[in-house]
Amino acid sequence: MIKFFSQIRHTIIMENSKSARYLKYALGEIILVVIGILIALQINNWNQNRINKAYELKMLRELVEDLKLDTTFMNVQFKRIKRFDESVKLVLNDPQNLKENGNLFLFGSVYFIQNTKAIETIKEGNVQIPFNDNLRKQINAHYHSSRFYLDLLSMEDKNFIEFRAIPLQKSQFQIQKNPNSKDFDIEPSVIDYETTIKSKEFNDYILLRKSRINRWNWAYQKIMESTLESIDSINLYLKEHK
Question: CA 47, CA 30: separation in Å to the nearest integer?
Answer without folding.
Answer: 26
